[in-house]
Amino acid sequence: MKVKEESPDVKTFTFKLEEGEFRFKAGQFVEVSVFGVGEAPFTLSSSPFDTEKFEVSIMRVGSVTSAIHRKKEGDVVGIRGPYGTHFPLEKCEGKDVTIVGGGIGIAPLRSLIYALIHEREKYGNIKVLYGAREPRLIVYKDLWDEFKKHVEVYLTVDFADETWKGHVGVVTTLFDVVEINPKDNMAFVCGPPIIKFVTQKLLELGFAPENIHLSLERMMKCGIRKCGHCNIGKYYVCRDGAVFTYDMIKDIPNPF
Asked: Are residues 93 and 211 in the same domain?
């Protein structure tokens, strides 16, 4: 295991199986176990085309994530998975793609970006809109310039400091300065609490509900539909998601 600090509260952990390859699709998740403490689900954030290793980016918010954050390079943890649905890359072929993330919600979308770039010729215009509360909380700082070689990237912060020269405002304000055509455009969104407001904005722009894909990973716990923690309407996020189209959940009260 390797550990990289992304921001004061977020680290990216790179894992390698003791034996064999690890295969997954962008949007799927794993359960990470710290022996004697517990386990928690995290959507994979690395390229699905790299089968030698895999990554998850984790924010420190509770006992399990704090225990994971205390791990050092070379330590061992338990992994189960991958589980869940995935981002439908096949539906994106020949179409434009709009990706919107907020805070640590960019982690599962990072895997999607890697996958799109790996076969860039298959897709149309790709725009990535990402927002953080303040500059020091932006994750993947060393990757954005690399991504800009292949896709359009727009960054914003809620609160700027003296070092910030870019856009200021919540991520939905980027829709006021970025031209997005909803025709033949597939949208992918993750990041509480912005997911609700971004979805509303996409609908206002004219995106079809079935073309808006949402990662609801934060609602999961056990990963195998036993605890009931992630139940929304007729769905269990861990079994039926964590990737949903808005069309699937739009009639469920408070789906976010």
From this structure: yes
